[in-house]
Amino acid sequence: MSVPDEPRVLVPLAVLDGESLAPPLVEALSGVPVELVGYHRIPEQTAPGQARMQFEERMEGELADLVTVFEEAGGRVETRMVFTHEPKQTFERVAVEASCDAVLLNNPATEISDVLVPLRGEVNVERVVALVASVLEATEADATLYHVADSEDEREAGRDLVNRAREALVEGGIAEDRVREEIVVSETPIKTLVATASEYDLVVMGESKPSVRELFFGEVSEQVSTQSVTPALVVRRLPAVEKKPDAEEDESAAENDESADEEATEESD
Amino acid sequence: MSDPAESAPEPSPPPEEAVKEGVHPEEGETTDEATLHEGGVELERTIGLGGGIAIGVGTMIGAGIFVFPGLAAGEAGPAAALSFAIGAVIALLVALPTAELATAMPRSGGGYYFVSRAMGAAAGAVVGLSVWLGLVFASAFYLVGFGQYAVATLAEVGISFGGVGPVTPLALAFGALLTAVSITGTENAAKFQNAVVGLLLVVLVGFLTYGVFDALGIFGRETAPETFMPFGAFPVVTTAALVFTSYLGFAQVATVAGEIKSPSRNLPLAMVGSVLAVGVLYVVTIFVATSAFGSERLAEFGETAIVAVARDLLGPVGAVAILLAGLLATVSSANASILSSSRALYALSRDALVPRRASEVNLRWGTPHVALLLAGGPVLLLVAIGRVEVLAEVASFLHLVMYGLICVALVRLRRTNPEWYDPSFTVPGYPVVPILGAIASFGLLAFMQPLSQVVGVSIMIGGGVWYRVYASDVELRGAL
Fold it and tell me: Which of A16, A79, A84 sits opposite B40 (nearest CB)?
């Protein structure tokens, strides 16, 4: 297992509603390119352009401040402002347009010293690991690779999964003593995961369904983040990329092609 | 006054290079999912085809089926069906050009936007202010209809007032409630509206199918045989002018054009589709209603005539179902009109034709409270006056003027053919369709009551005066 290209993170912030990003999160994201989306949710009675007319300047100011904070922490950030009736639809669109690999589910954080990495299946493990590596490189934090097995019988499979992720992290240059492992057995995996997550500072996990939209609709990662009040980086399962166990090189090449295509379309519009 | 940056004439871009094909200059770039403006600002498009049709049908259906059948049959006899058909044809003649313009300029503001861009700020101001008040009249008309249904519903459950009952107080109360709810921000109002429209269509199609079979004598009952045009041809046309209020909704789709997903596909489908859908329903409704009762008795039932028809065909259950449907339909039409009216004010204030403050958004609820009050307030005033036919005709009058000008605007744009004008939907039968649309729209004005004509013309003159006094120095971005 190797670590693919650096992951790109979508950070949506309702800046006009006073949503802000905790400084430790800015630090944790300083190693990856960030797509910062200042958004404002407006009711149906209001035309998006109407809200823009009134709030654009304020939002621009708020975002500029955030960019300064990111840049002071050594981060790379691009911004856009969106006025929308449906934030979920916006996040999904921007994630695809900007080729984002992960989305931040924001929550307060005072420090990032322990990162929980719940691993469930094969899907996305490489990109989850790549993101964890970036976060660890940018911070002093330790990571706990974590698996909730449904039964004792499945404990071994979980251990394999966790071990492979660990190897990939270490191969990527993370010190061995910064990576812990934990396998638990639970009949109520989500409850267990929520309880565990609330003891950590940040969760990095994969998305089990193919769109950010469903994720925000109540996917596991969202439940975990909301109920545990822990920020979470959720790695998207990019649509339409065929996964073959031994074709990681091809896959990352395909992703590059995809993002190149998108840029080309944007320019030709 | 308004922000100088908005009202100041912007230097027009050098036409050869800065203008992209199919993109209106200065007004952002349209994609299927958003409008992209300079400086990284994006406006999300969130209304799909279903939502667009629901806006069109939802705005229209309240009037044609639940308020007009009795009135129309009283004036034109069974030929009222023909009046509705004439209305549908005129609406289609205008809907097609409107769809073309909307795909070329998928921006909020609808008819005002097209007319102002093709014909300048003065015409734009008159049309925009007329649409704002036209929708106010329409909304008042729907609310009075609602009041009738509310009283009839109360009577059905045994609360009777004798005489006409408290139609006006109920309409006023609900109008105030709708405005308040709009201002304080309702979650999922659009989903509710979509569900209401879906439910209405199911109830109506079921009811009308039964009614048609009945009218054709399949159930073996006697129908009321009658002369098709008992009062001659002239009332058929005046009735068409009266009931044209039943076809105002497709233009409301254009007022939210900036929020429609995949606008080049969904805008024409939603506009033309909703006119065809309600047109067929209206004609069938009149056929069923006049077959069941004969136009004279139908006229006696007044605004809630369709309830009597339902009771006759399906018994008390049918009556209750149609009463509830009528309540929902009139409320949904009134609500949609208040919202569209506030959108019209937004479009005007964006172009500095009215003070910027008119479309101010409050941060607490995120709603344009001033514009909503400027829509809802006058509605209550008109409800208090409460003359259904005048309200309906003035609403139609003001819309028909805009429709006629939309057709003219289309011809003008086609002839000057600016580089940015690249509609993805083009009117079939150009130039015949838009020219007929303009003639029919302006022609219908002549068949209205003198009072409605006077009120309509006065409002337009008022709009012109406003423009001279307040906004004569405005130059529009991207106008011809």
Answer: A79
Q: What is the pLDDT of residue B44?
A: 94
Question: Cα separation of B457 and B284, whole Å?
Answer: 34
Taking CA atoms, what residue in B is nearest to A78? B40
Q: CB contact, 8 Å: A90 with chain B? A: yes
The residue type of B309 is V
Q: Mapping DSSP to helix (H, G, I), strand (E, B) and coil, where does residue B427 land?
A: coil
Q: How many alpha carbons fall within 13 Å on the CB side of residue B111?
A: 34
User: Hey, where are the domains in chain A?
Assistant: 9-105, 114-235
Which CATH code is given to the segment(s) B24-471?
A: 1.20.1740.10
Query: What are A193's strand-pairing partners?
Result: none
Q: Could you say which of B42, B189, B356 has the minimum Cβ distance to residue A44? A: B189
In this predicted model, what pLDDT tens digit does every residue of B269-298 receive, in sequence order? Answer: 999 999 999 999 999 999 999 888 888 888
Taking only Cα atoms into account, the Rg of chain A, rounded to an integer number of angstroms, comes to 19
Percent of chain A with pLDDT over 90: 62
pLDDT tier at A244 (50, 70, 90 boundaries)? very low
ipTM of the shown complex = 0.85
Class in CATH terms, A9-105: alpha beta
The C-alpha atoms of residue A103 and residue A106 are separated, in whole angstroms, by 9
* A34 in reach of chain B (CB within 8 A): no
Class for the domain spanning A114-235: alpha beta
Query: Is B363 at the interface with chain A, CB within 8 A?
Result: yes
DSSP H helices in B21-119? 49-66, 68-76, 80-104, 111-119
- Shortest Cα distance, chain A CAs vs residue B25, angstroms: 14
- Rounded to whole angstroms, how far apart are CA atoms B77 and B79? 5
Under an 8 A CB cutoff, do B185 and A81 touch? no
CB contact under 8 A, B365 and A43: yes
pLDDT digits (tens, 9 = 90+) for B354-412: 999 998 998 888 899 999 999 999 999 999 987 888 999 999 999 999 999 999 999 99
Tokens of B346: 């937004």
A contacts of B107 (beta carbons < 8 Å): 49
Task: State chain A's mean pLDDT as an integer.
Answer: 83
Q: Which two tokens stand for residue B37?
A: 């403006």
Q: Do domains A9-105 and A114-235 have the same CATH topology?
A: yes
